[in-house]
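Dear H.,

Thanks for agreeing to be a second pair of eyes. The structure we're designing against is below in token form, covering all 1070 positions.
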């Protein structure tokens, strides 16, 4: 072990305030070596089901102590958890336990309610005393091997498929007890309208899970899942806030079900800025920018009558566009790839509605025509789901500051462009059809400054909008931004030289970290021991404290390890300058990652925040130590590859983190196998991000250094949301049953996101639980409640509206092939982990076969030879073939295990646009770029060459081609490439003198160079990661990587596109 504090001159002064019994009175060596046991409460005690869900610091129950600021016991007694579960989830009648279904299909049960019963499906946790039979669960709870995407109940289809045929179980009628009373007495007359409509809670049942410590339904794999009654475990959870908008209430108590939708602010937080900016995201229809002042606070006016419902008025003119249905013979039509990036299909809605719809970059559905029934969906053999990019950076976003956030009393939907106004004072929810009152304040339109125009309010004019949340949306005062960096400083880590790059980048961007005057920062380093750094004000230099007891980690002088960034900037900068040199002589090869993470968690627990951990090898000592599982000789087969974690240590720790609003981002920089399948869990369940720099080395792999720098800069400076939760709602009748992404599912459908970042994507699967009879449209709404780095509580809401159709041909006409592919990829990752890779591959192929068979037998009126697909799905076989050849799912290659796992992480966590690019790269010819059709952005001319098919047939030896595969780019130079390109763009005299390892385009003063660089830079700027550009020739060792991406061509282990089509045709015609 290397203690370099002496050498580095770190001040060994005994911290005055620290009085841990184990602290030696004095250490001559100038360091504190806290070894041996100590009294700090046990860190590692995963004992109870609720433990990971417990969130002690939040407790604003009415009548109970409001906030705890300090650390609190982490493990409540299990019994308490259970009882809490029942009382607050409100899911089960007393005495009734969650029914355990016997199979692992996504079963949902519907709950219907007699007319007149109070609305009940506020999200669990809002305190209904009654019940829905649902141990909720997203599909990630299934034990490996028993996971079925498909298989109709009782039906014959047991082949691999992702579809979920089958119908929902019969509705169960449950008496409901009323909701809690709202914090203030209800206003206005009782709601008008029909009986409350209830959206049944989602069920995903499964066998009791003995392994998990989370309640009966904890997840084993896949994404997060909620424990059966987990939401319950935290009575006073964010669930209550997002779902109910009420301060969580400890015990259900009978009360009138009139939740007030007009949620007045009891008291306001000083952080809430006044003012209203009405701006819009680029390209988002219906978001006219205007600079308007939104008066803070409500205005009281007299309301004039409102016109007729603007939404239904437009409904009459739905007309079908049949282009998507045009039959295409795939075996004949070879030029099906569009020459520009494929756009999302436009939903077939009246233009007045469509222009208000959510931008497809933010919210997308696999089927833009929603099938009316599950039977129709089953027939189509296409997955129904949503793909979201909810926190995407938007250059313009309408932000509303108002004391009144108008939501449906019944289902808590935020008022949105697709509600209908029945008359001057009532609006009808587009998700549950409850009729709600228009609050007085909402009658005034701050945009037009006119009273009596609630339908013209920004909330009703923008499908994407952000609210400044009043205090009811807080369980505690908004947390400060807290950033903790955890660095591997073992010998191996120092060898890679990464610490230099990271510390330098951090130094350069210290002032750009999102935050405010409350921002805190801290550092931990570790090898076989854990080193803390005191940055206490008044110290002349940082002070290193070493804890060598990694079995029972505790935090020395916790008050000085996370310090205010602004007040201690010099000490912090000092540390960042010194750190890279501190361990250069270290011979310590061991890695105590697990204990270091435990320490980090302890340090962060009181506040929440972000942990960024940098790791360069397999953790070898202490909790979470791992053994290598990669067997090089087995790489080539799909069998026996280790896609599942080898320990649940990281997942459990992640759930602890999640409970304390801490997210962990993992940067893995390693040349050797590091078991990302296990390590990645720390980020996945805590809503973190994973970055992987394979074979990072500052000298041997310099191109990775630039990539790390660029991506780290983005990481450090991008927007961040803290203590976030997200809920996705959909119109009654539809039901969400599985979630994909990095998060933990709390209480059925509430995604817990300790951090949310603008680069994360999510997906959900849905089913049609009750027929959507008589509905012309359905809507989907995501609501993300978060604390901004400025300490504001905000809610970002996206709402999408889609038409309902009754025929199979209409379902196909509206299919969004990219969204379908993206969702299938997510499902295939789950399948690979829960079953096998070959099962997942089979299921992907079957998805194509099944849907094209159904199209052929049920939609095509004239049978013809060939392989017929509706135009909307013409790229489906190509995209699925591309998935099969993608690193996540390919066989017979040298894909290293960690690389494969990382690709799977990307599939799960990336927005659709990047997922598509890494699955089916874009190929451009670039040796003849022109300004024709070029974009003009900020005085730069960006050429827009056409996209080519991914086949060597499309390559000409006298050209140069750029392949953009998302996180990597290849510039292939043909042997006979024109001299002018080689000299004017590459800056070398001839083909022979192009260097073998060229990764940069020189900036030359030629038109060709300027065009090419403009194009490459433009491509790079549009994504949050930095693709390395490899310039390759025919004899380049990277040529095989380039050819591997030629999806349409045959490889040693995979079919060509044409062969694949023949295979599909054979199956379809069976
Ligand atoms: Zn509603």
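And this is the sequence the design step returned. I haven't edited it by hand at all.
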């Amino acid at each position: 072990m290397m203690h370099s504090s002496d050498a580095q001159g770190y001040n060994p002064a005994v911290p005055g305030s620290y009085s841990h019994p184990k602290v030696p009175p004095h250490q001559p060596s100038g360091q504190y070596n806290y070894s041996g046991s100590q009294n700090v409460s046990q860190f590692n005690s995963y004992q109870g089901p609720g433990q990971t869900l417990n969130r002690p610091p939040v407790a604003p129950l009415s009548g109970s102590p409001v906030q705890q600021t300090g650390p609190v016991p982490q493990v409540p007694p299990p019994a308490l958890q259970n009882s809490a579960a029942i009382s607050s989830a409100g899911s089960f009648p007393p005495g009734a336990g969650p029914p355990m279904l016997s199979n692992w299909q996504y079963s949902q049960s519907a709950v219907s309610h007699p007319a007149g019963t109070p609305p009940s499906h506020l999200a669990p946790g809002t305190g209904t005393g009654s019940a829905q039979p649902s141990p909720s669960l997203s599909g990630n709870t299934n034990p490996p091997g028993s996971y079925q995407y498909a298989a109709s109940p009782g039906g014959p289809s047991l082949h691999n498929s992702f579809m979920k045929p089958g119908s929902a179980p019969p509705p169960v009628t449950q008496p409901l007890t009323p909701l809690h009373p709202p914090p203030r007495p209800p206003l206005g007359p009782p709601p008008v309208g029909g009986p409350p409509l209830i959206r049944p809670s989602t069920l995903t049942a499964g066998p009791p899970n003995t392994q998990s410590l989370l309640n009966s339904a904890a997840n084993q794999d896949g994404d997060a899942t909620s424990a059966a009654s987990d939401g319950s475990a935290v009575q006073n959870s964010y669930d209550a806030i997002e779902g109910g908008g009420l301060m969580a209430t400890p015990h259900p108590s009978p009360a009138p079900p009139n939740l007030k939708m007009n949620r007045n602010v009891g008291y306001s937080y000083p952080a809430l800025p006044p003012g209203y900016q009405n701006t819009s995201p680029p390209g988002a229809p219906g978001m006219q920018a205007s600079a308007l002042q939104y008066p803070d606070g409500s205005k009281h006016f007299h309301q004039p009558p409102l016109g007729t419902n603007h939404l239904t008025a437009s409904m009459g003119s739905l007309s079908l566009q049949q282009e998507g249905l045009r039959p295409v013979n795939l075996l004949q039509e070879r030029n099906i790839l569009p020459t520009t990036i494929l756009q999302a299909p436009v939903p077939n809605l009246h233009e007045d509605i469509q222009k208000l719809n959510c931008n497809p970059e933010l919210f997308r559905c696999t089927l833009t025509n929603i099938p009316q029934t599950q039977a129709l969906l089953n027939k189509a053999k296409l997955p129904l789901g949503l793909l979201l990019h909810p926190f995407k950076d938007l250059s313009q976003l309408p932000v509303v500051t108002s004391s009144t956030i108008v939501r449906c009393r019944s289902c808590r939907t935020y008022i949105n462009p697709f509600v209908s106004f029945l008359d001057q004072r009532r609006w009808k929810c587009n998700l549950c059809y409850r009729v709600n009152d228009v609050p007085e304040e909402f009658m005034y339109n701050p945009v037009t400054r006119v009273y009596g125009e609630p339908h013209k309010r920004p909330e009703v004019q923008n499908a994407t909008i952000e609210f400044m949340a009043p205090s009811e949306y807080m369980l505690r005062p908004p947390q400060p931004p807290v950033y903790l960096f955890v660095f591997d400083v073992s010998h191996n880590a120092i060898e890679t030289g990464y610490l230099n790059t990271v510390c330098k980048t951090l130094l350069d961007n210290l002032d750009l970290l999102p935050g405010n005057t409350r921002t805190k920062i801290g550092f931990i380093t570790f090898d076989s021991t854990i080193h803390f750094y005191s940055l206490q004000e008044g110290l002349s230099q940082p002070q290193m404290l070493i804890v060598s007891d990694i079995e029972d980690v505790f935090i020395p002088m916790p008050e000085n390890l996370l310090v205010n960034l602004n007040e201690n900037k010099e000490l912090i900068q000092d540390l960042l300058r010194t750190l890279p040199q501190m361990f250069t002589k270290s011979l310590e090869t061991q890695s105590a990652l697990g204990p270091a993470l435990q320490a980090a968690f302890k340090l962060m627990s009181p506040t929440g925040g972000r942990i960024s951990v940098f790791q360069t090898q397999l953790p070898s000592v202490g909790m979470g130590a791992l053994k290598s599982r990669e067997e090089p000789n087995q790489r080539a087969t799909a069998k026996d590859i280790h896609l599942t974690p080898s320990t649940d240590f990281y997942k459990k720790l992640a759930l602890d983190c999640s409970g304390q609003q801490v997210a962990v981002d993992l940067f893995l920089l390693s040349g050797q196998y590091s078991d990302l399948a296990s390590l990645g869990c720390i980020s996945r369940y805590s809503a973190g991000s994973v970055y992987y720099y394979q074979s990072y080395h500052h000298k041997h792999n310099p191109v990775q250094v630039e990539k790390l720098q660029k991506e780290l800069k983005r990481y450090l400076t991008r927007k961040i949301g803290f203590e976030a939760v997200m809920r996705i709602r959909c119109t009654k009748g539809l039901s969400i049953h599985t979630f994909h992404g990095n998060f933990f599912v709390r209480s059925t459908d509430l995604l817990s996101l300790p951090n949310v970042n603008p680069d994360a994507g999510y997906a959900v699967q849905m089913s049609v639980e009750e027929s959507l009879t008589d509905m012309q449209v359905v809507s989907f709404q995501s609501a993300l409640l978060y604390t901004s780095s400025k300490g504001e509580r905000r809610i970002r809401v996206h709402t999408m509206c889609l038409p309902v159709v009754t025929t199979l041909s209409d379902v196909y006409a509206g299919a969004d092939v990219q969204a379908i592919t993206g969702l299938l990829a997510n499902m295939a990752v789950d399948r690979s982990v829960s079953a096998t890779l070959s099962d997942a591959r089979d299921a992907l192929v079957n998805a194509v076969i099944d849907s094209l068979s159904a199209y052929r037998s049920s939609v095509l009126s004239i049978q013809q030879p060939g392989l017929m697909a509706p135009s909307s799905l013409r790229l489906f076989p190509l995209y699925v073939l591309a998935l099969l050849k993608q690193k996540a799912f390919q066989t017979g290659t040298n894909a290293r295990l960690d690389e494969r796992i990382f690709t799977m992480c990307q599939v799960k966590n990336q927005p659709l646009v990047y997922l598509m690019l890494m699955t089916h790269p874009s190929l451009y010819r670039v040796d003849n770029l022109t300004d024709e059709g070029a974009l003009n952005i900020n005085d730069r001319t960006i050429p827009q060459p056409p996209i080519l098919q991914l086949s060597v047939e499309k390559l000409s030896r006298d050209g140069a081609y750029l392949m953009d595969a998302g996180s990597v780019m290849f510039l292939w130079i043909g042997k006979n490439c024109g001299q002018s390109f080689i000299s004017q763009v590459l800056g070398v005299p001839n083909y022979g003198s192009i260097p073998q390892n060229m990764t940069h385009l020189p900036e030359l003063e030629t038109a060709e160079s300027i065009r090419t660089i403009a194009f490459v830079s433009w491509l790079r700027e549009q994504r949050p990661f930095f693709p390395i550009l490899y310039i390759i020739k025919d004899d380049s060792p990277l040529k095989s990587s380039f050819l591997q991406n030629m999806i349409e061509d045959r490889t040693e282990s995979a079919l060509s596109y044409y062969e694949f089509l023949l295979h599909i045709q054979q199956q379809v015609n069976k």
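Two observations from my side: Residues 1-159, 164-236, 244-320 have pLDDT under 50 and may be disordered. The longest strand covers residues 793-805.

Warmly,
E.
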